[in-house]
Amino acid sequence: MIIEIKDDFDLKKIADSGQAFRIAEVNGFYRFIHKDNVIYIKNIGGPAYETTGGTFSNEYFDIGRNYSSIKALTAGDDFLSKAAAFGQGIRILRQDPFETMITFIISQRKSIPSIKACVEGIARKYGHPIKTEFETIYSFPTPIELSRATEAELRELKTGYRAPYILDAVARVTDGTLDLEKIAGLSDTELIEELKTVCGIGDKVANCIGLFAYGRTVLAPVDTWIGKIMDNYYGGANPFNKYGDVAGIMQQYAFFYAVNTKLKL
Fold first, then answer.
1. Has residue 99 got a pLDDT over 80?
2. N or C: which end of the chain has fewer CB within 10 A?
């Protein structure tokens, strides 16, 4: 199937932006997995993209938002202007809340390659197989599927001290203590506080879940990279708050720029 996307849309930058950990290049396509929907996409020139496999989701890729206009908001901010230009093409993916919660618990104090390897290991052990025209892969496990895991097994998959945090998250979801669908109706502040009831989820991880799973683009997670940017370029102040509903998009531009240009901060 051929589709057109005339707004900012760069598959490699989305894949390298650190917001999702299972995107991969396969047979010249970029593979995206959302629950059991596996879609392969490649650019075939200009705004034209070829897709195969699953269903292309406008919601997942945030197609309803004009990212080109967002970059213009950085006028007068030298650092963010450069970051937005460098990161042009990134979009905030609307991911599955359970997978996002577990993967960002895992992400703490881990490199991106280590996170990816750990997440793939969990999918292979506890998920179910999905056969596509290119490969057989494994879904990220549902809460029930992951409830089969033991702490020892998760530690064998290199989750380390995060293993009990994962089990706590799984238990809260499966017993209904944490209803990931219901909390979508909460305010930003209430959503963050509810997510933080899970062991091992603090402000940064909760904000990542809010941004990448619930589309709360007003949220701008502060990790080590962002903290250094704030200290080195903004005198310790948060430069994202003034951007309101697109603060999280600005944060992604800044994070991607710092990590991929290896800024010395």
1. yes
2. N
